[in-house]
Structure formats: structure tokens, C-alpha cells
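Q: What would this complex look like in 3D?
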Amino acid sequence: MVHKKIQLKDIAREVGVSTATVSYVLNDHPMSARISEDVSARIRQTALDLNYQPNQIAKSLKTQKTYTIGLIVADIANPFSAHMARIIEDDAKKKGYTVIFGSSDENIDKAQNLINTMFNRQIDGLILAAVDKSQSQIADILKKGVPLVLIDRYFPMDQVSYVGIDNYGATYEAVQLLIRNGRKRIGLISYDTELVHLSERNRGYLDALRDGGITADNALIKTISLHQIRQDVERGLAELLQAEPAVDAVLFTTNLLSINGLRYLYQQKVAIPERLAVVAFDETDVYDFFPISITYVRQPLDELGRAASEVLISQMENKTEQAIKVNLKTTLVVGQSSG
Amino acid sequence: MVHKKIQLKDIAREVGVSTATVSYVLNDHPMSARISEDVSARIRQTALDLNYQPNQIAKSLKTQKTYTIGLIVADIANPFSAHMARIIEDDAKKKGYTVIFGSSDENIDKAQNLINTMFNRQIDGLILAAVDKSQSQIADILKKGVPLVLIDRYFPMDQVSYVGIDNYGATYEAVQLLIRNGRKRIGLISYDTELVHLSERNRGYLDALRDGGITADNALIKTISLHQIRQDVERGLAELLQAEPAVDAVLFTTNLLSINGLRYLYQQKVAIPERLAVVAFDETDVYDFFPISITYVRQPLDELGRAASEVLISQMENKTEQAIKVNLKTTLVVGQSSG
DNA sequence: TATGCTTGCTTAAACGATTAAGCTGGTTAA
DNA sequence: TTAACCAGCTTAATCGTTTAAGCAAGCATA
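A: Here is my prediction, written as C-alpha cells for the whole assembly.
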């Protein structure tokens, strides 16, 4: 037997008042100060008795607020995205917002499709891990006046809010450590992309080398296609291991690169850190299975997610025109793999 | 500058017709057969020119369809959930549905909260990984007449659709393999829960032992609290390793149990499979980092997600009263760890 | 005694779409 | 000649809320 949905008018009929009165009371509208205690109490009780659940759709249509935020991540199956999604959903829920989500798969058309769908659903704001070359997409969103927070991926536009890490500092610090440990031929495994946050990681690497008195060698920088990570990482590492003069360290700039790289190095039985010192990026389950402890850059995922949610919601509620940029510090967790 | 949202009436004004005409044309309503080619074309063109995006909220209020499905997983940060979420979102999107999601954290109150929120948003259907002891919660949903598909976790109620694996067969087959490989003292690491899909895994273990002529020993069955997995797994394994007569094999019944168990066995340098044969559950990144290949039960995650989405949507659209139960076969991927 | 203020409500117009029913002028069939 | 029909629209109600404006009765004030 299908239960009929209880509406305002059911309560109104039951109590013998108008729907307006019921609405005022249940929403604690200022006008409810003018409703008698007796009627108020009866309305509240009846709402409870009938287990009234307001129709958010109708509410949203009238108030022009959906209390929904959109979240577009690169890939929800990537633990980095999944972890942040979890935090964001949690924080948003606490503040009365529901999250609708989608994965862009680094594909700009899929992202646009998701953006359109979400806007049609009148989301109040959007948290977006933007894909490569999507400046104009971001600009379009801004033009619509919908609150937007970019997460993880930075774009140099000053009207847009952003929450991410100090990408430059993260790799700078990592390379500095490797140099301090006596490494001179340091390889880099990074993505083939124009995404600013990744080129910032590259820049940190390059500057740390320079500041450490080491001339960068382009042959030691391997760029990996987002769409064939495993194959490219393995080829890149194989090339690095054969380089002349020999490579003595390598830095990975994302979690998937780290996992794929470590797997290969493990399977090839490369002596770490003796032959090759390693610094990975992001925390992953696999580090515990390595013969030695892994040195890695830890991103503060919880804070990232929370900050994104907070910045977005404050923007939505305070209508702050000012864009907010948050750059969180990473932590270099030093293990034995870095020499 | 904030762009004003284009509405039906803007197009209507532009073309010089009523909003009804515009609606008929843009929705390919049967009535649109009676609108002249000229007017139709002008409406379509104007909609494109103005980049009209229908307001889903208004549409939903009128049609009583939101084209939104709710997804409640146990923990979106668990790769098992994340993977399925990704597939479900993808498949649903293809069919015109948007997904709103939440993590219950195995907490029944949090789950109820999510269910309420989603219903207030008038979801057309729900995919639910139900938490322990939530039969009455499920019954409530059914009473409302909202299409529901349980995923992963089975409950013995015949009015509700379900998509999952053959849990009994999965562990039965795994234990059978261990017995064939000469193991006689086989431990089980499982959760402390009444969840049927997990007790089915236990039952498969027990029956395979019995059918293999081995008397089950309760001391070899370790139940782990969902809320302190690492600690409990380590204690459980430590106990198993000290058991008399010696344990010669162990079976893990979920991915997190497998990861935590393997980590401990690795760190304790337990010889696998010589001293202890191991069968894990679910595919994880960490297997590749083990000295030997791991034998594990593979769940068909893609098919699970797709089936859940398909069953739900067919139920929503065809109004099939009949509950559908899908039990997908698992694959026992045999490596060296099982001896 | 008229005036205004307060109290405790109600009325009805929105929000932006969908859609049944109606209207008008021409064509066709009987 | 007139009814019936069709093409090509429009009108207006509706979905379930919110909320500005209104209204009636009672009380206080001038």
C-alpha cells in the first residue's frame, strides 16, 4: 500500500487553519509571533503525528534556493577525490546542504555536461576540480553569478575562489630533502598537462634543483599521459634507470603516479634508496607493503574538503563578492625511501 | 555582470507565441504535431540563441518526476563504494538521471537522516547499501512506494529488489581451494555484524569445511568490529598464529580486512603460503606489492553498479511491482598465496 | 467617539514549468 | 447549407510551497 504524501494543506485541514498559518509556524517565520500558542502547538503536534516532510522541490521553486551544491571531481574512484567527496558531503550536510556529484574523467565535454545538468537543477553553488584547458568553462560559470570554488586544480583568474595546496612548496621541499641526502640526478614523474597546479609542482622541482646548484636535465623529466598511466610510468622509469650518468632519485607528483611507479620499482627489484631514492605524493595503502618506509608529500585532505565546503557556503550565504584563495601547507613525511 | 536566467516566457515573447506552444515544441509533445513548421523552427532557434536551460525544479514540481536518484553507500572513501558510485553515476547519467549521494558510515541514524533528506528532495528512486539492523528502515521505504534497490547488503525480504554477489558461493569456493591445497586448519577473518551478506560468507566457509570433511573450530573464526578494524584484525591474526594445532590458512571476507590482514602478515614476516595460505576478498592496489601473487575473490564491481542502476531505473519507469534479485557470480582469482 | 494599534489569522499571488480544454477560421463531407 | 472536422494556436489551472497584503475584532488612546 502506497502512502500518500502529507502536505501543508493536510495539516491545515486537520488543525482548521490556512496553509499560510501552518507555513509560518513550521518555518519559525517572524509572522509566527502573531500566531497563538494554542494553534502553534497544535500545528507542530499534527506535523509530527502525520510525519510531515516538506516538499523541497516546491520550497525551492518558491524561495529560489535549493540547498544543493554540486561537486565535480576528476574521478570519484580515485581515493584522493573520494576522500574529499566524503568530507565535503559531511560538512555540507551539517550545514543543511545536499551534494550532487559527478566525475569528469578529465574530459572537458563530460564536465560541461555535468555543469549544465547541475545548473538545470538550480544548484546554489559548485565545487569543481576543473579539467585541463577549461578556463573558458570557468569564466562562463562566473558570468552566471553562481558561487564557485575550484578545488585542487588552480587557474590564474582572480575572480574565482580556490582551495588547494602549496604545490610549488611541496615539491620544492621534497627535492631539497633529496639534495640534502646527497642526490644529484633527480628524476621527475609528472603528468602531460597544462594544469597549473601540476606545472607548479614541476616549477618547485626545477627551482629546488637550481637553488641546490644542480642543472636540470630535461631527459630526467618524464611526462605521463592521463589515459595510459601504467604503461607510461613504466616506460618513463625504465628510461630513467638506463640514463647516463645514472639517476639516483625520483619524485612522483600524484598518488596514481606514485602507486604505479612504486609497483614497477618493486617488481624490478630496484634497490631503494641505495640505487634510487624515492619521494611519493599523497598517502596510499600501498606504502605499508614496501620493504622500507616511504617518504611522501602529505596533502591535508580533510582540511581541503572542509575548506572547500566552508568557502563555498560562506560565499553563498554572505554573498561575499571577494574571491577567496586558500593554499594549505603540505607535510613532507620523511621515511627511509628518500635516502 | 550576472546573467538573467532565460525562461520559457522569454522565448515565447521573442517568437510571439504563448509559453504553452514553446513547451510543446521543446518537449516534442504530441501536441507539437499541430504547431506549424515555421513557428516550431523559430522556437527551436530562439531557444538555442538564448541558450535556454529549463528549470528542472519547476519541471519536477509539475511533473512529479525529478530524474534524481539517491545513492547511500557505507563509505564513499572505501574503494569498493567509490568504484560502484562511479559506475552508477555514469550509467544513471546516460539515462538522464542525476545522482545525489551520501555515506552512512554504517550508522543507522545517519542513514535515516540521509534517507529523509533525499525523500524531501523527491528522489525518484534509491540505491541503498543498508546498514546493520535496518530492516524496519527498509520496510518504511517500501511502504512509501519509492522504488528501492539494495546493493551489496542483502536482507531477506521478498518485496525488495537487490543486486549483489553470490556471497555463499564466493567463500565456499575459496575454502574449497584451500582444502584442495591440503589446508586443514583454516581461519576466517570477518566482521562482527548481523548483515546477511556477511553471514552468508561465513556460511559458505562453514559448509565448505563440512563438505571437505573438516570440523569447524570456533576459535579460528575472528570477528572484527567495524569501528576498529586495524586493531582487531591484528589481534585476531596474532591469536590465529598462536593457535594449537597451528592454523595453516586464513580467509578474509572484505577488502579492508584483506588490506589490514595482509599488512600485518607482511610486517610480521609470516611465510605465505608456506606457513599460512591466504585468500583475500576484492581487488586492491596492495596485492601487487606482495612478494607473491595473492589469491582473491573478485567481485564484478562494474556489473554490480550497472545492474543496480538498471534494475532501479527499470523499476521506476516500468513500474514493475515485481522485486528483482540479482546475484552475480564472483571469480576466484588464483595466485600463489593460497598454496 | 473616532482613531489607531495589536492580535490572530486568511486570501491570493507568486515561483517556472506542463497540459487539458477551449477558441477561431478555414476546409470538407453530407 | 450546415455540421463536422482540422490546423494552429491560446487560456488558465496546476504542482506544493512562501509571503505580502488584507481583514475583523478587541483594546488603548486622544
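A: To summarize the key features: Chain A has a mean pLDDT of 94. The longest strand of chain A covers residues 68-73.
Q: Very helpful, thank you.
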